[in-house]
Amino acid sequence: MTSEITIITTPFFLKVSVNCYLVRDHDGFFLIDTGRSNKRWEIEKEMARASCRQGDLKLILLTHGDFDHCGNAAYFREKFGAKIAMHNDDSGMVEYGDMTWNRKKQNILIRTILGLMVRLSEADRFKPDIFLEDGDDLSEKGLEAIVIHIPGHSLGSVAFLTAGGELFCGDLLANTDKPDIWSIIDDPVAAAASIDKLKEFEIGGVYPGHGDTFTMVQFRQNYSPSL
Q1: What average pLDDT values come out for the chain (227 residues) when binned by 10 residues?
Q2: Sign, CA torsion 30/33/36/42
Q3: Cys-Cys crosslink for 144: which of 123, 132, 163, 173, Cβ 3.0 to 4.6 Å?
Q4: Could you give the domains of the chain?
Q5: Residues 19-24: contacts with CB within 8 Å, 24+ apart?
Q6: Entry pTM
Q7: Residue 225 neighbours by CB under 8 Å, 6+ apart
């Protein structure tokens, strides 16, 4: 098991929350996703409570480019001096603030509504420092984990699987009612393939972008492929 995982949960909408994870491994901290910018103070407070201070954060790892997962990435990069790593296929979302970037084309009305409601503010936009690829080993950066590319929610979605079998899955899977595939999927075919791909790995606990942690066994018991 990884040395220490701090789950930082903040409200999102209705009864749904959004998670980011502060992982302590070896001699430093790694932040997996960064929450929404309007919850910055709450997240900072939890990081301080875990004794993560300036100079302690080694890397910011983003599972994908949505605003509720990367809203504080630029801010924390500046504050802690930590680089930001994510998959290139979601990079335009954070550079331009457009959450529909590189996603399937909705009709113009839906794209306009989404563009107004879920944009990343100009102050919070950024260019990633590191682009992650499927199979990347993060141990050289101090975290005993690998990167798994899992498109479906977004083209550039990735998961992080630790040596202890903990999977940080972003928004491919969730547990807002029961462990299942997340309700917001851009490409169902790609998502189903990503779920099948996870069978190749020894996974114990799953840490989703939304909802409570669960085991991969629990997910398999609930998941019913629709394809």
Answers
A1: 87 88 91 96 96 94 96 97 98 93 65 59 96 97 96 97 97 95 92 97 97 96 76
A2: negative
A3: 163
A4: 4-222 (3.60.15.10)
A5: 19/207, 19/208, 19/209, 19/210, 19/211, 20/69, 21/168, 21/207, 22/46, 22/47, 22/50, 22/52, 23/143, 23/162, 24/50, 24/52
A6: 0.93
A7: 192, 195
One-letter amino acid of 215:
T
